[in-house]
Amino acid sequence: MARKASHTAIEERAPTPGALAGAADLRKQPAAARKKAVKPPGKLPAKVAALLKKAVKRPMDPNIRPMLATLVNEPPGSDEWIFEIKWDGYRSLAFMDKKATDLRSRNNKSFSQKFYPIQEALQAWGIRAVVDGEIVAVSDNGAANFGALQQWRSEADGELRYYVFDILWYDGHDLRDLPLTDRKTILEALIPATGAILSSPGYATSGKEFMQAVKELGLEGIMAKEKNSTYRSGDRARDWLKIKSGRRQEAVIGGYTKNEGSKKPFSALLVGFMENGKLVYSGKVGTGFTVRQQQEIMEKFKPLLRKRQPFTQEPDVNKPSRFRPNPPKAEAFWLKPELVCEVNYTEITSDGVMRHPSFEGLRDDKPAGEVKAEKETAVSEVTEEKPRRKVKMPLTPAGAKSRKTLLNPSADSQVRQVSGHELKFSNLDKIYWPKERITKRDMLNYYYQVAPFILPYLAGRPQSMNRYPNGIAGKSFYQKDVTATAPDWMRQYPYTTSEGEDKNFLVPEDAAAILWMANSGSIEMNPWNSTIQTPDHPDWCCLDLDPSEKNTFRQVIETALAVKEVIDGLGVKGYPKTSGSTGIHIYIPLNAKYTYDECQLFGKIIATKVHEMLPGYTSIERMTRNRKGKLYIDYLQNRPKATLAAPYSLRPKPGAPVSMPLHWEEVKPGLKITDFNIHNALDRIKSEGDLFKPVLGKGADLQKMLRRLERDSKKA
């Protein structure tokens, strides 16, 4: 059980300074209890076990980076947020496994030896987990004190605590995609009852009252976190906010001064902030030091001394001011700008200089190059969702960041603004994949997050919607005509049926169109191979390797590798992806330079050569009865209005698989269709980028390929 006092997961009322004092006062626990080894948690509560079942199973990621917060001017006012104390210490992730435990700073430096009591406490905890928290030191009054932490060398210098506020991975389960409140519920069940590891609870309360209570305790500030936020490693997110009690931040040390006749090691630090890779002067810091600190700091200065000053403009260290008309004569010494310190100040003047700065301590957990002047954002700008601009024919943005989920996990119907259009989402609790208990909400959140990557393969291409209004276990039907159902803002493309009726395809241009299709039950996205700009000229040639029930997936892989061998010999590049069902798709870029007839002939040449290489289990026969249970190399998909599942599309199959682009090196025995699904596809894309992007590129030269074929036939 987690220890009591104010360490409940979420308080339902506004905590007073007295109620918070138990959380902020680190003297409460007797020394004997702090030293006592803790036992690993026993059987987890049923509620926690149920939450773990919702998480994706995967090995521990040793490269998780901490999620960062946005600085705002005041706490948000809605009830969608919980609030935590902002601890005055070092942010640190703890990686705990059976064989190794490591405590790391926010810039991935090991704290394990430096703060060895916390390392020992983590080892004694005895769980397999990755947790996020803050290391703090205790001052004489029992509060977290950054100066005490900065000077900490051993237990003789005071007590250390590790306040844990999040859990990212536990015993084979990746928890980062669970809502924050679920992660905190799991964490509270695991926090040891004694020792140096404590919970940093979340309070569902008034942000303004919580901030007032924290100010009265003299604490650094508060954190505001959306209750349903996921953990976005390495991102500076807008669903985690920080609000400071006073003005305080890091600064880069670019030099120091020594006043004439002074016996102190130095008189003031010359500090600045980084702007566009250059150090901009922001003032002199002359208070807040002890003599011992100054001596230790001077030792760090020695290897960094340099002759040239590092600022964009040389500071005038002897400039008189209204308060010091006759300043003491000072000499400046310049340093390579590598050391970072923490500074308190009252305000920053119009020329960018801090007033009344005071030294708090050195920081070695953040690189100097990342230290910029923090500017508060109005909380209204951060918490109000703004419509996204409508885009046409986009390309995947380089280094695109992960989106957070669109829909919250509770309401069955929700209204959201997407790409500037209002969409109403309904029946969100409906189960679409029964075995895995994956809901319509899960599907919609996936398509919202994957939209920047799938959109280049959908934009401008008419769709044939395959609708599953009751999930994959219910009946499905195809819908091409959207004349009477699509909203006015959605683009349509006309066609005439064999009966002479005028109808319209849907043509997506933005994320709103994708989500409108998905909300109608379209689990998979099926675009044309050409756009409405060049409807008779496909952008790619595709080969669909479609196995029968008699084929193994190993044979599909061998056939794909044979395709690669053939096209490599023709001097053509191809790009494979899983179909998301039973086969593999291989796309060859054409850049809309050829007709569908020419494209299909090209596909037939490749398919024929592959069949000649693997006649035992492949076929190019169109009629199923003539294939005799062999794997079909389908080149006839290269025809007008034919569709295939787009890259990154979900498929209406058990396990919610995704049609996933592959490296050719991955097309080998051991590859499985189930390797890529709704749970891990976004992490895969974030890790590998858009592997299919070249499919929309320059395109193959079929004339050159035909000339090569003619030369080869003559040689034969």
Estimated radius of gyration? 31 Å
Give the N-terminus to C-terminus distance in angstroms: 79 Å
How much of the sequence lies in strands comes to 25-35%
Structural domain count = 4
Structural class: alpha+beta
Helicity range: 10-25%
Biggest sheet details: 7 strands, mixed
Q: What is the CATH class of the largest domain?
A: Alpha Beta
Low-confidence stretches: 1-13, 30-39, 385-401
**CATH superfamily caption of the largest domain:** DNA ligase/mRNA capping enzyme
**Which of globular, elongated, flat, extended, rod-shaped describes the shape?**
elongated
Q: What's the number of extended β-strand segments?
A: 36
Count every helix, treating DSSP H or I runs of 4 or more residues as helices.
15
Mean pLDDT value: 87
Q: What are the key terms here?
A:
716 residues; alpha+beta; D-amino Acid Aminotransferase, Chain A, domain 1; OB fold (Dihydrolipoamide Acetyltransferase, E2P); DNA primase, PRIM domain; 4 domains; 15 helices; 36 strands; disordered N terminus; DNA-directed DNA polymerase; manganese; ligase; DNA ligase (ATP) activity; DNA recombination
Structure, described:
- With 716 residues, this protein is α+β, with helices and mostly antiparallel strands.
- The chain folds into four domains: 10-245, D-amino Acid Aminotransferase, Chain A, domain 1 (2-Layer Sandwich), CATH 3.30.470.30; 248-370, OB fold (Dihydrolipoamide Acetyltransferase, E2P); 414-524, Alpha-Beta Complex (DNA primase, PRIM domain); 540-711, DNA primase, PRIM domain (Alpha-Beta Complex).
- It has 15 helices and 36 strands.
- The strands form ten sheets. Strands 2, 5, 6, 7, 8, 9 and 10 form a seven-stranded mixed sheet that branches. Strands 14, 15, 16, 17, 18, 19 and 22 form a seven-stranded antiparallel sheet that branches.
- Strand 5 (90-96) and strand 6 form a beta hairpin.
- Helix 12 (553-569) crosses helix 13.
- The longest helix has 18 residues, at 596-613.
- Residues 1-13, 30-39 and 385-401 have low confidence and may be disordered.
